[in-house]
Amino acid sequence: MNDDRTVEFVPRDERIRLTVLAVLLLAFGLPQLPELVRAWGVPEDELIHFPQWMFWLMFGGPVAVGLALLGRVGLLGLRADAQGLVNRSLVETRTTPWCEVAAIGYRPRHTWGPAGAAGLVLTDRQGRDTHLASTAPSPGDGAAQEARLSRLHALHTGHLTACPSCGS
Predict the structure, then answer these.
(1) With contact defined as beta carbons under 8 Å apart, do 138 and 121 qualify?
(2) Are residues 81 and 99 in the same domain?
(3) pLDDT band, very low/low/confident/very high, at 30 (cuts 50, 70, 90)
(4) Do both 91 and 68 map to the same domain?
(5) Which phi and psi angles does 29 have, rounded to 5°?
(6) What DSSP string runs through 117-132?
């Protein structure tokens, strides 16, 4: 739930792409699972010239990856509140307290590929930049994205003025 004390960036386009990929992986692997289960006790020389591990790898692997993607894709995004930022990607969830953030910038999309991806750029106290691609706007976000960025800057500024250890 978004209110004045929280800001959420939800990468809708990325969620759609990953959901489609997961469904395709499941559509490839799931029809083969009954055959894999049936063949579980069959000697390998009676299978169609493939060892069982190869069948499990070819058809069970995509099912496992598809299920893992579906389980994680709904969590993608960034949430900011009074304590700091929580960035959820496919691989990890990273929490960054406001005291570690010196500045917040925004990089618009300017080229293709990961190097040109849009999103927030956090600068820490040592001057290192961290790009958060999970905050990239979806087409048509315009004014809503600007409002989220304004609220995010307000949360950061509010913390800097209230925190005795990092306020000026």
Answers:
(1) no
(2) yes
(3) confident
(4) no
(5) -90, -35
(6) --EEEEEETTS-EEEE
Residue 8 DSSP SS3: strand
Residue finishing a domain among 23, 56, 73: 73
Among 22-26, 72-76, 108-112, where is mean pLDDT lowest? 108-112
Residue 57's domain spans which residues?
A: 14-73
Of 58, 73, 88, which residue sits at a domain end? 73
Query: Quick one: angle between helices 61-73 and 12-29, nearest 10?
Result: 150
Q: Can you give the pLDDT at residue 47?
A: 57
Pair 36, 24 in one domain:
yes
- 92 and 157 assigned to the same domain: yes
In DSSP terms, 78 is beta-bridged to: 9, 87
β 84-88/119-124 pair status: unpaired
Question: Tens of pLDDT along 105-144?
Answer: 877 665 555 555 667 788 888 888 887 766 665 555 677 7
